[in-house]
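User: Could you go from structure to sequence for me? I need the amino acid at each position, not a summary. Structure tokens:
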């Protein structure tokens, strides 16, 4: 209060030109608060009952009252300022008051009648108070420095604003200040959020502390209860010791006997325990040795199995070379050499009748070549021509050899990758795995997922059963053609040739249901083989039906299986263009001998190689085809020609080329090589190019068909205009009937 009543000191000239505005008021309030706190602390140590000196009252009355800052229209600078001399006198008086109030033990200063100890205490207290006051003064100086810097900054900004020549510059200064204010506002918000997070953290910590206190209290209560129990037990033991109960003591002889028996039992148990420990160590060593031996035997067995597989693959290769040599020798000798020809024929018959299962019992056969593969197809088709049967046998041996050699290196890691897959979803990894082929145990699940992706907008609950009911209630016009084609479906597959098999009936139901699903197509030759492949893999009628729907209605272009087969003809022309681009040397050779590839390739694209490739390569093509679409069919068609390009170029006769093209797809045995050609050597293969080629050839083909229709119409009009004419010298049918 004394500091607040003092007059405002004269400001230096350096501060008189600075307009502190509200900042000056804040600085004065800060000074008054700090000094007021100091006065309160100084007077707080004064003994009760001791009042201030009466000499202070006149001095307070002589001090002029400070100007009223809250009065409107008045400026503190306009109030009368005291002279420097009176200000100095007032400051000295105030300092003396503070010094007298600083010593609570000596209200009138240090007196002579006090002891040395009291003086030391008073001086120490004075030093402490002066240290605190010095610290407060330093803080005040820091605040004043910051306030001065802010005022100078404000002055510079105001000067720049006033010195700006144009409103544009002033507006830019205002915008700069607005940006600074916005930045400060964001910092304030960030600090507020940090404060809130700290408050939440503090509350959580407080809750944890409260829980820990409760836990500690529970532990203390538990400890107290235990202490009480211990105390009670101690008291009871003391009482029992002081006043033992009246019990009849056991005879000393019985107690000694019991003790001896217990000691003997303990000794026997120790001996048994030591024996068991010794036996356990021995058994552990035996188990360790047996485990080492078992591991060595397992490693040796695996090495022998690998060696056996390698030897069996080599045996297949040697046998295929032997058969190929016999065939070439037969062609070289010819029919005229009677005895040699008969000997060669006998050797070929023995080679064709030999099977791996008829080998000696001592030979290690891991996977002999069976008559049928895992999907029921004949491994060696029973061709009527002996040369074709010989080639088929050679091809089977080569396929088996490649399978044995690639099992550990390729197929086993591929199976592990498929087994590690969880839920299926379209991705680049799935695309690469599908191109490499799906293992047999995973193929039904993967195909169902692929079909569901294609036809999920067409599927409905009970749709297949509804179509079956319709086909039973009403006979479809295509039913007769379906019955004719059932017996022609895969004659080399035991599932469709065995009379007791259920596959033909299931195939009939699938095809009839599809004829009602898509009445615009009804049935087309080739759909029976597509549905049969789906049945062999999926083994469910409804799944095979939806697979057929996915191929015909979503994967293949429209009109692919229509009556005109328009899209199929377009794809044949597209394939010719792609062959000319990718394999120009081969196409030049075929063009030289006037070979039309559409006689061979039309069925490839129509049934997606169902009659052309062996089953393991065929299903690998279908794995990628169901995911990527028709582009895969073109890739593999080009790859097949690339695979056999050298063999075709050796042939120099058109008839020989046609005969070779009839069965050359069955000679492909290396699926990995074919896949690499299809997806690596045939690149780049953009889908945009395929669409453009299809569009161009479709327009040309439609124009050609339209022209043919016009020629047909003109011919019919001409014949109708001429009427039925009878050449001279010929008798009409009517005249013949009139004769008796």
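Assistant: Here is the amino acid at each position, in order:
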């Amino acid at each position: 209060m004394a500091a607040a009543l003092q007059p405002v000191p004269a400001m230096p000239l350096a501060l008189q030109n600075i307009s502190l505005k509200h900042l000056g008021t804040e600085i004065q309030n800060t000074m008054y608060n700090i000094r007021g706190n100091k006065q309160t602390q100084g007077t707080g140590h004064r003994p009760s009952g001791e009042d201030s000196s009466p000499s202070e009252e006149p001095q307070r009355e002589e001090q002029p009252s400070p100007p009223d800052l809250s009065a409107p229209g008045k400026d503190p600078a306009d109030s009368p300022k005291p002279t420097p001399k009176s200000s100095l006198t007032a400051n000295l008086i105030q300092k003396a008051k503070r010094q007298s109030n600083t010593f609570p033990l000596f209200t009138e200063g240090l007196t002579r009648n006090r002891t040395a100890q009291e003086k030391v205490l008073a001086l120490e207290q004075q030093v402490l108070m002066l240290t605190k006051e010095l610290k407060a003064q330093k803080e005040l100086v820091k605040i004043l420095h910051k306030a001065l810097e802010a005022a100078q900054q404000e002055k510079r900004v105001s000067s720049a604003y006033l010195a700006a020549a144009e409103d544009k510059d002033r507006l830019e200064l205002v915008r700069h200040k607005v940006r600074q204010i916005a930045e400060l506002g964001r910092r304030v918000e960030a600090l507020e959020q940090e404060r809130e997070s700290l408050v939440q953290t503090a509350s959580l910590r407080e809750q944890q502390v409260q829980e820990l206190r409760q836990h500690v209290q529970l532990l203390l209560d538990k400890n107290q209860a235990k202490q009480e129990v211990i105390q009670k037990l101690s008291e009871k033991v003391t009482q029992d010791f002081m006043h033992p109960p009246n019990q009849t003591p056991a005879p000393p002889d019985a107690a000694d006997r019991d003790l001896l028996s217990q000691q003997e039992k303990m000794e026997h148990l120790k001996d048994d325990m030591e024996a068991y420990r010794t036996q356990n160590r021995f058994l552990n060593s035996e188990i360790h040795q047996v485990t080492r031996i078992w591991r060595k035997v397992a490693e040796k067995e695996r090495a022998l199995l690998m060696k056996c597989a390698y030897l069996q693959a080599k045996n297949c290769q040697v046998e295929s070379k032997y058969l190929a040599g016999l065939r070439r020798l037969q062609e070289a000798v010819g029919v005229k050499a009677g005895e040699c020809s008969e000997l060669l024929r006998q050797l070929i018959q023995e080679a064709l009748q030999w099977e791996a299962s008829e080998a000696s019992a001592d030979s290690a056969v891991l996977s002999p070549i069976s008559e049928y593969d895992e999907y029921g197809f004949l491994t060696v088709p029973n061709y009527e021509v002996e040369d074709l049967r010989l080639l088929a046998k050679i091809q089977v041996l080569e396929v088996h050899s490649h399978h044995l050699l690639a099992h550990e290196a390729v197929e086993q890691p591929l199976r592990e990758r498929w087994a590690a897959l969880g839920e299926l979803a379209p991705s680049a990894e799935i695309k690469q795995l599908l191109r490499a082929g799906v293992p047999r145990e995973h193929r039904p699940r993967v195909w169902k997922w692929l079909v569901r992706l294609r036809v999920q907008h067409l599927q409905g609950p009970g749709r297949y059963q509804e179509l079956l009911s319709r086909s039973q209630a009403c006979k479809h016009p295509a039913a007769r053609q379906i019955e004719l084609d059932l017996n022609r479906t895969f004659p080399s597959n035991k599932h469709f040739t065995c009379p007791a098999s259920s596959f033909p009936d299931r195939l009939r139901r699938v095809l009839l249901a599809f004829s009602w699903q898509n009445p615009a197509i009804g049935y087309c030759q080739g759909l029976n083989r597509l549905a049969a492949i789906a049945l062999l893999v999926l083994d469910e009628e409804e799944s095979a039906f939806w697979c057929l729907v996915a191929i015909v209605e979503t994967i293949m272009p429209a009109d692919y299986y229509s009556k005109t087969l328009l899209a199929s003809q377009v794809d044949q022309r597209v394939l010719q263009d792609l062959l000319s681009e990718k394999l120009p040397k081969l196409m030049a050779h075929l063009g030289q001998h006037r070979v039309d590839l559409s006689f061979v390739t039309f069925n490839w694209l129509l049934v997606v190689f169902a009659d052309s490739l062996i089953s393991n390569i065929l299903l690998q093509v279908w794995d990628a085809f169901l995911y990527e679409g028709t582009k895969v069919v073109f890739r593999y068609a080009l790859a097949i020609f690339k695979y056999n390009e050298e063999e075709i170029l050796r042939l120099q006769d058109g008839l020989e080329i046609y005969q070779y093209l009839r069965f050359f797809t069955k000679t492909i045995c290396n699926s990995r090589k074919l896949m690499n050609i299809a997806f690596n050597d045939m690149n780049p293969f953009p889908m945009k190019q395929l669409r453009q080629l299809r569009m161009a050839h479709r327009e040309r083909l439609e124009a050609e068909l339209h022209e043919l229709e016009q020629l047909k119409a003109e011919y019919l009009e001409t014949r109708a205009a001429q009427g039925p004419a009878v050449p001279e010298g010929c008798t009409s049918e009517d005249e013949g009937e009139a004769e008796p």
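One structural detail worth keeping in mind: The chain has a mean pLDDT of 77.
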